[in-house]
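Structure request: Phosphate acetyltransferase, Algoriphagus alkaliphilus.
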Amino acid sequence: MTNAIYLTTTEPFSGKSIYALGLVNLLAGKTDKISYFKPIITVGKKEKDRRLTLIKEHFKLAQPYEDMFSFTIQKAFKEINRKNEAFLIDAIIEKFQRLQENSDFVVVEGTDFAGISTNVEFNGNVSIAKNLGIPAAIILTCDHKTDSEIVEQAISTTNAFLSNGVQVLTLVANKVQQGKEAELRRKLTMALPKEILISAIPVHLELSNPTMEEIRDAMGAKVFFGENLLTNRVDHVIVGAMQLRNFLQRLKNNTLVITPGDRGDIIIGALQANISKNFGKIAGMVLSGGMLPEDSIVQLVEGLETVVPILQVEEATFEVVTKINDIKARISADDKEKIAIGIRLFEQAVDEKALTDKIVAFHSDVLTPRMFQYQLVKRAKSNKKHIVLPEGEDDRILQAVDQLVKQDVVALTLLGNKETIELTIKRLNLSLDLMSVNVIAPVSSVRFEEYAQALYELRKNKGLTIQMARDLMLDVSYFGTMMVYKGHADGMVSGAVHTTQHTIRPALQFVKTKPGVATVSSVFFMCLPNRVSVFGDCAVVPNPSSEQLADIAISSAESAKMLGIEPKIAMLSYSSGSSGEGEEVEKVRKATELIRLRRPDLKVEGPIQYDAAVDPEVGKKKLPNSEVAGQASVLIFPDLNTGNNTYKAVQRETGAIAIGPMLQGLNKPVNDLSRGCTMVDVFNTVVITAIQAQES
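Returned structure:
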């Protein structure tokens, strides 16, 4: 069951308030622990978002206003322009998950489409919903649109969410012409997937047209009379620039009269019409041109028992008309009548039981790269470990350290010359304070002799002398690995400058492998758009035997479980099932049998081709009775040549994020970086190493 839903639209003034009010009212009948969250608001810091204020005040939410949003639209676009989308999404995920942990239900609202780019906002809403892992409720405004236009927009909008892995629970057609709701609902039901709940909410004058208060606020007008009647709704607008007899003939119910302040005849005529049984009710008046009525007119108005709101503005009549036509009605927190109407419309138009059932039944298997990375960082923070980085003078290492320190993910030791590191930090313009990390130059370390002696004792039977041990301890890879071995660090990450062999040789020499593990191997966590797959081995074992393949698969399954991925193992080959023959296929077939024998609790299929492993349709055709085919999460390659090329091809062609390689099988975590790694690669590898250390 999910405990959240994402309300979104495609254009401004869609009427989200009606659905938001109705939904929160529905939820309030089931729990009092409701949170409302709008990741990006379209007002500045000094101004409060209208809908957040409406929901908070009407439902008396205990949630502080500051917890109801993450970014202003200006701040969000600034981060996007700086290519900091990852920071943006991570901050939104973090605040959302805090709300989710402390609430029974979170209603999340998308942007208002009042920003700079409609396309950017639409794609942003899809991305946020996807990364939060929650279903969408799409609200379409049907105002001034034909049925065919509405249906086409519904199809394209729904497809955009579904194709990106976001489930659509419901689609709401709002502001539908009265009497046309059933017909439009029928057409939408035929056009959209059957599992989507369709609702149609009719247009309602009291919600669609502005009040005198909204006109006052939008125009910045002064109120001369009738302040207690500013809730009057405006259904029609007339300009009083004609003779009184012609003006009176054009009056309708709830009419706003716009006239220059010196037209006393129109002012008096409108007020008289308002109290006459033969004319419609006057909503109010706007006096244009910065002119005031004569004193005698003012005196007359003051003596009337019934006075409509009379506003005064500086703008000329034509400009006033233009501005008032652009005013969109809103529901404010103090307008109890509009709130009641909105909730009533929701209750009449929405099948509340069907909506509740869909929310309860929702389940998502989507795991986006950002969701995965956020969960990793959160896990690492939960039990901070100490990681040593031997290549402390490298630019990418220091850039990653800057981010790790800012987010308080791990404790860090850098190996290198402190003065060189300080100069690099200044050159890169980083905010990193070296007081927040430990910097060690191996040659001057107080533990140098202790480490050299320990290495000598460990390797003297291999012909190592004490002087050779001292020489090796000047090597940062040996020094860093010894820190891990002695328990002075919980894990090590290296390889940005050094080769894989240089990085892992010391670990193989004296950290050794875990009991029962004969093969040290590696995995990459391939963060694809809608899932995370584990690829092994793509970095260490060139041509594994059947026994080694079984070791790699079992270790990879444990690595997947460690990071919250259910292991379904595909032992890859160039044929699926029993169809193929040959030495390489037999090697994979034997490895699969060994896994089933050693670990009957694991789901494994092999030999199997890549397409049959990951594509549900292909998997069903080639291996119809398999628990793994079409849904594999752990993919084991038959050799290093295949594995390394495949992970790089997937990474380059799909834009997938490849986290790793993560070494598996060692007693303590030591991980290798590629010499072509980026700052993000370093950051992610340190985080994974910290999680491995938690499990050690």
